[in-house]
Amino acid sequence: MSLDAPLFTVYCTCVVGLLGLCMGSFLNCLAWRMTHGESVMHGRSHCTSCGHTLAARDLVPVLSWLFSRGRCRYCGERVSWRYPATELLCCVVYVSILLRYGLSIEATELVAFSSVLLVLSLTDLDTYTIPNVTIVAAIGIRCAYIVACAFMGRDPFVLLRDSFVSGLAVGGAVLLLSLVMDRALGRDSLGGGDVKLLFVAGLYFGWQQCLFLVIVACVVGILMGVLGQRARTGSQGEKSRLIPFGPAIALACWICMLCGEQVVGWYLSLF
Ligand SMILES: [Zn+2]
Q: Which residues surround ligand 1, an ion (CB under 5 A)?
């Protein structure tokens, strides 16, 4: 279904935007629980500082943070700006996918995939690891999309073959490159999670778009490294010199969702 009527577009944008805000709040909570070893299925939302159970009025995306001036209502401890920022980002990502793909099966797939990307970005920022469960979830979403396509008359086996050939080509090439760089630099260049995530990107975008994706991810990664270096003041140690590459790959995936096809088409038209 396309978004032809302006009023309908506005309505869908509002609904999806609200969904994005609420999902952003949920994904924040999910990522926090994953990095702190808490059950993701059980337990009420609570302040990460004093442990007080949060009421409904504490859980309104963005607004709760604004009205409490970025502090816990119970203990007064600062609540990171990252929470409302993630909620807003999730809203923007969902709406951008809706406007690009309309109400379609592709949009559903990419909204689900970008939710997984958001969670693994948050865990990578905090712990320098991309949990395997997020990789499995992303592969599961792709497989569910292929099954849904089969019901809509597309050949699922061709889709499955193309996806996995691209995934293995991209993941394999990146793994090989990282092994060579490890040797040349004498230290780890890319984490195992990054290689797995690029395999997943290959499943979704095909190897041609992934060339563009890897370039974007490298540029973003370098920028993050430079900005991170400036932001750090005296925190030394091995981990402080690492750059979490997951968020850079995730951002590149989002850019690929929005304009990857056009960029590859434009590049090929040059020849
Ligand atoms: Zn508190």
A: 47, 49-50, 72, 74-75
Domain that holds residue 22: 1-102
Rounded distance from Cα 23 to ligand 1 centre (Å): 22
Backbone angles phi, psi at 60, to 5 degrees: -75, 120
C-alpha to C-alpha distances, 207 to 145, 161, 163, 197, nearest whole angstrom: 19, 13, 9, 14
Q: Rounded CA gap, 251 and 246, in Å?
A: 9
Query: Within this chain, do residues 204 and 144 fall inside the same structural domain, yes or no?
Result: yes
What is the chain's pLDDT, residue by residue, as a tens digit (271 residues)?
A: 567 788 888 999 999 999 999 999 999 999 999 998 888 777 788 888 888 888 888 888 899 999 989 899 889 899 999 999 999 999 999 999 999 999 999 999 999 999 999 999 999 999 999 999 999 999 999 999 999 999 988 888 999 999 999 999 999 999 999 899 888 888 877 888 999 999 999 999 988 899 999 999 999 988 888 887 776 655 555 555 567 889 999 999 999 999 998 998 899 899 8
- Measured in angstroms, how far is the CA atom of residue 61 from the centroid of ligand 1? 17
Distance 256 CA to ligand 1 centre (A): 39
Residue 118 forms part of a structural domain: yes
CA of 193 to the centre of ligand 1 (A): 33
How many domains is the chain built from? 2
Please check whether residues 119 and 209 belong to one and the same domain. Answer: yes
Q: Is residue 133 part of a domain?
A: yes
